[in-house]
Amino acid sequence: MLVILPPAQYDHAPIRPVPEIRMDWAEVDGYCREHGIVAPSRLTGYRLTACTVRSGTWFTIILPNDGDVSADDIDRLRRHEDGHVNGWPADHPDGRI
Length: 97
What we know:
By secondary structure, the protein is of the alpha+beta class.
């Protein structure tokens, strides 16, 4: 799984705890889009594998369940989403693989 990692200034644990919701991988895309995450259309073959949902100043990270993807992929997805919590913009400037 290709996961873009945030630039160094965003690639760290958030300063306050961020709750996670884990769900079946097949449900993540729909859940994220229903909560306002904008990404290329599923019709183009692009599927969200994780997201960060914001409500005011609070965030929730949505990740697939263990077993749906590898533990290494979960770790990279979490780093990606932590980057958004830390201020990395949604258009992923200066992201690295």
